[in-house]
Design brief:
homodimer; 60s Ribosomal Protein L30, Chain: A; Alpha/beta knot; 6-stranded parallel β-sheet; 9 helices; about 30% helix; about 25% strand; Alpha/beta_knot_MTases (chains A, B); RNA binding (chains A, B); RNA methyltransferase activity (chains A, B); Ribosomal_eL30-like_sf (chains A, B); RNA methyltransferase (chains A, B)
Chain lengths: ~240, ~240
């Protein structure tokens, strides 16, 4: 059973302000929930339609009817389970290795895909401008497919961050140097820009190393690359010599 | 004004069987419609809420109220215009250059993103297994952002196609050769597999050149790459020496 108050609380967590108030977020589906349970995330409560997740104690688990799951789910087609977790304290930001910096990424699917890519390429730190979509947005949590447990994400002022770092800062620009011919280090910060506007002017002025993914199609017409796809190609280039 | 019959026809085009019956599909949004108008696609009718698209004759254009646009749109938040186009005859399949072959891609967003990537990397031919999502699905048309006008897409039996081609056939497999160390030609067919199951067994058996994108993160846990992201990385590798 799930009470009216619980339904109200959980649906409110689709909004960032209530996630901040309650310091809670939720995830859906066996795979993502299992990864969160296996990590350092602290479970608040699990709602499931099946007698599963035996490792979770009865006090933290409720059997829920499909119709009630629909009421609390953020998905069009709800999965079999939904779990509320505590938002962990922000961890210290890594100061070495390869770091992805996101300048106002708005689409939850893009942020989730980028975290999945970071996980694949062994990038452990992502820093986001404060305007970037919240990592605990249910759509982001879903799109990360569990990578949220392995990549450290911090929100900060990107200009301050770049000004204070000792690492080389790279950014992708239409007029940047051909990435295939650039000398790419093992360590550094790679800035990826907003879906519609690219890297903001203020951040762009602080970037010394301007790189570009060359375009092979019709130069007049071809659309720009999607930011998540571009991040994949850029990470692949940074990592390929160390595989 | 848009009649009840027109509304019924247009909404039916969200389903493949009615697109086949009527040999029509629709696109939404100024950018995509403009690209289709500028290409060889033949306009059936344009519905717009604004006095725009001056190049389209009055007979093929109707001013439509926002509320009616909502009725015919496939989008949650409709754009300002929707246009119905004729499905063109399938063009001859290219037998040279780099060709992407898709083995049962189900997600419209993935197919759209892959076409956008092909457009960027100058790949002019995509061949799809018959189980791959239809290119004239409204969500695919939207996700291509106009690339649908520049990439030739054919549906066929992939096994027959691979058996009959003279080109080298590459496929991505978990146990394939490190793509960063492979010798990749300028011409060839690259097979990308289904989101959940990868390349099917029947197709896989016909592929001589098995490649893999190395994984750098936690080998036990990291999720597989999304197929669109993987296509981007693979295309970048095939093209990087020719930039």
């Amino acid at each position: 059973m799930v009470s009216k108050n619980q339904i109200k609380l959980i649906t409110s967590l689709q909004q960032k302000k209530y996630r901040i108030t309650h310091q809670l977020f939720f995830a859906e589906g066996v795979k993502v929930i299992q990864e969160l349970l296996d990590s350092n995330f602290e479970l608040e409560h699990l709602y499931t339609t099946q007698y599963d997740f035996e490792e979770v104690s009865g006090a933290k688990k409720s059997l829920i009817h499909e119709n009630d799951l629909k009421k609390i789910s953020a998905l069009t087609t709800p999965n079999s389970c939904l779990a509320v977790f505590k938002i962990p304290q922000e961890r210290e930001i890594a100061t070495s290795g390869l770091i992805i910096a996101l300048d106002d990424i708005r689409d939850p699917g893009n942020l989730g895909t980028i975290l999945r890519l970071c996980d694949w390429f062994g990038v452990e730190q992502v820093v986001c401008s404060r305007e970037t979509v919240d990592i605990y947005n249910p759509k982001v949590v879903q799109a990360t497919m569990g990578s949220i447990t392995r990549v450290n994400v911090a929100y900060l002022d990107l200009c301050d961050y770049i000004t204070q770092t000792d690492l080389s800062v790279f950014g992708t620009f239409m007029d940047g140097e051909n990435i295939y011919k650039s000398n790419l280090p093992q360590e550094g910060i790679i800035v990826m820009g907003n879906e519609a506007n690219g890297i903001s002017e203020a951040v762009g002025e602080l970037i010394k190393k301007r790189i570009a993914i060359p375009r092979f199609g019709d130069l007049q017409k071809t659309e720009s690359l999607n930011v998540a796809t571009a991040t994949g190609i850029v990470l692949s280039e940074f990592k390929r010599n160390f595989a």
